[in-house]
Predict the structure.
Amino acid sequence: MGPTKIKQKRSTSTTNEYLDSITTPSKPDNSCLISPNGKAKDSTSLDNVGDAQVSDESEFEIEDLLSSSDEFVYDEDGIDDDAQVMLSHPIEEKEQKHQKEGNMPDLDYTVMTMQDIFENMLRRVDHLQPIFNIPREDILLLMQHYDWNEERLLENWTEKMDELLVEIGVTQDTGSTPHVSVATNETTPQGKTTESSKRGVKFRENFTCLICCEEKNTETFSLECGHEFCIDCYRHYIEDKLHSGNIITCMNCSLALKNYDIDNVMGHESSKKLMASSIKSFIQSHNKNYKWCPYADCGCIIHLRDTSTLAEYTRLHYSPFVKCNNDHRFCFSCGFEVHAPADCNVTNAWIKKARKESENLNWVVSHTKECPKCGANIEKDGGCNHMKCFGCKYEFCWICDGEWAPHGKDYYQCVMYNNEDNPKKSRDANLAKYMKKYTFYYRIFNEHELSAKLDWKLGQTIESKVRELQEQMDISWIEGQFLPDSIRILNESRTALKWSFPVSYYSDQSHNLTKIFVDNQSLLSKAVEDLSELLQIKDPIEIMRRKADFYNMSGFVENRKFALMECGRELLCRGICKPMD
Amino acid sequence: MASLPKRIIKETERLVTDPVPGITAEPHDDNLRYFQVTIEGPAGSPYEEGLFQLELYLPDDYPMEAPKVRFLTKIYHPNIDRLGRICLDILKTNWSPALQIRTVLLSVQALLASPNPNDPLANDVAEDWIKNEQGAKQTAREWTQRYAKK
């Protein structure tokens, strides 16, 4: 089965799913029977747009063919007249997919480390060397001075070469040509003029250093300028300046220390620190194109070559999600985790609000819950929201405190905010109502965040689980990969689900599309819970027996996630979801 | 307190034996890193005839770190703000350990002789200085008379 066919399958089911979500929320299981090959469908997420590009053409053709037959398949149940208007929606949806995958420019980015960037710079220095015809170390200084901006350097170089060399301290301001006074080079230590022999570390007896005023037998350092100071003062001086990223000069004039001078005085590696801080400041000052991965202790840097695409992403309420070498996914624009279906505005509004209003709420909501039946204190230690009280054996949903039994069947009720909850309350209760609405959404958001963390922990152990399967069940490593795949899908989907709640919070509750969105949330919630429960299975034999379930379930979850994300984007594009404070 | 570095002792000695004309700097009895400074207004400047009090403190890391200098006398100058803080490159980015207390104080004196309203610290004063230099200088003279009279 070639890639096109897999794509075809994906497109079909995506369109179907979307229709399902609008028309038949009561029978979500119809399309979850996806063959094990469906596993290859993980290119649905937005930031994989680039990967999917190759087979764009074929996908569109297939979709064009399919859409005509699929679009108007719907059930009447539960859909009022307004919803009929919404049914034309998949057509728009399809057009937008065209825009996304056809006209939507790809994010053209590379993942780099500081070392990569520095090596790039060194290559550029090598490039410039024949043009400048001065030692590489000197070009490095020039580049450092010009904040690694080659163009500006070249421009100024042709205009006022000698002035420039004096300005950055490569040559002294004596009118001598650069080639005479920068003669000192590591590789050619012999045959120096008296001037250049001043440069370097020497040993002196009874030397009085003008910086510390101590008289002692000591090593000293000086450049061609002859400003000689003791090595201790120089070390102290250089150490203080290594983090600035700027060129380090003689303590008494503007002559520059080159990297080998610094290493000479300080010991090896030190100039690397200086180069690193210089590159850091380069990244800082080019933060439109370069972004640090926001995850703790991750040194990756994303380099986006063409930022003009970002505006288009914003306009269509997509977010420019990128992935670093350590598989950390984040939004290039706002630096948050992947937050689809919410866009950056919704995310920022939500985060701000959460900071403002939920510090107390946060703790209360996330740490404590009593069994709704017997009142025993319960702490949640697994990802699934299907709870069973150890004391009274009552089974309930962690999110809504309701009995579990109705959740498991067809309709996941507890993600719907019931607006008609308190009709008797008067106008002055508006604030309380508003807080209640917020608390409701915040709580769900928080629960999913917590669950996501637990799922993530589960994911950390998954490799050992796969190994267990290999050893006990005698299956190949590659065959066992359905487990990590499922975990990844679970994590991604739970994140999407989590960020869908800010979207519904800011959406016009009375609008039909919001209702459809909430239906989509219900379906994804249920699917995610099912998958999470499936992943709780520990027995290897049971896991292998239910392997097809893993495939079906994660495929289904993936489709639901995509449908939810597209629906959320639609809410944003149409202005039904408006983040405000 | 740790013993005073030789560098500070030497500089202090030299400030006494070989004083800079128009400038005095005496360390405080309790803290030899803290100096009481006076600077005479340079001749030909609006600050002529004035005697300005300053404080100067040598931080622990001196001479790797610049001394901290502040005017105690009120002064109308575009590079000195209401709190007496001074905008001078060698006190910040262009500090070098080879500079000394005396060179710093000389630079402050030079700053009085040639204000630089294009790189201001006290914005209102600088604006006044650019728009109406004669008026601004007159105000500076009045302030010198009022606050810095010898």
Remarks:
- The two ends of chain B are 36 Å apart (CA to CA).
- The mean pLDDT of chain B is 91.
